[in-house]
Amino acid sequence: MAKLIYSMITSLDGYAEAAEGGLGTGAEDQEVHTFIDDLFRGVGTYLYGRRMYETMVFWETADTVPDHPPHIVEYARGWQAAEKIVYSTTLESVSSARTTIERTFDPGVVRKLKAESEHDLTVDGPNLAAQAIRAGLVDEYHLFITTSVVGGGKRFFPDGVRLDLDLVEERSFSSGLIYARYRTRPAG
């Protein structure tokens, strides 16, 4: 059975999207990009909300841009090879290969995907991830924590949900970014 992973950059105070502006520095360097590429190379399916898909579709052609460094090209090729499912009620069409649109998030369908997949899946974007978290579908949480406190926005974890997690891995980068991987603690 594949794992469902929720991974995003988050501010030090726990926001995956800041109310105003960016989340701070630390995620832009080659060291971090290479680590992320190594970490997610085995992902077979990305689950996106519309806004996150519109951000990530950049990777559909990033490998064709002259002078992009090898770590950018490598990540782009991995992203292109994976399946993408975009959950949106408004998106008319997609602009990337291996991509489908679903109008509603169905936890039963995602459970089936996890059970049948040979490769891990990710859920990306705080709104879509909140639905997966509330449905008890997320197996691991990968936080890339910046050095900034932003004071508001969309939280990485949804309000009103209790999670008991085990720290599995941690790493700090020269940029100040901290990576923390948590696994959902089994019930009982």
UniProtKB/TrEMBL annotation:
Organism per entry: Actinoplanes italicus
User: Mind telling me which InterPro entries this protein's record contains?
Assistant: DHFR-like_dom_sf (IPR024072), RibDG_C (IPR002734), Riboflavin_Biosynth_HTPR (IPR050765)
Q: What is this protein called?
A: Dihydrofolate reductase
Q: Which GO terms describe its biological process?
A: riboflavin biosynthetic process
- Residue ranges of the Bacterial bifunctional deaminase-reductase C-terminal domain? 3-178
Gene3D superfamilies in the record? Dihydrofolate Reductase, subunit A
Which GO MF terms are attached to this record? 5-amino-6-(5-phosphoribosylamino)uracil reductase activity
SUPFAM superfamilies, alphabetically?
Dihydrofolate reductase-like
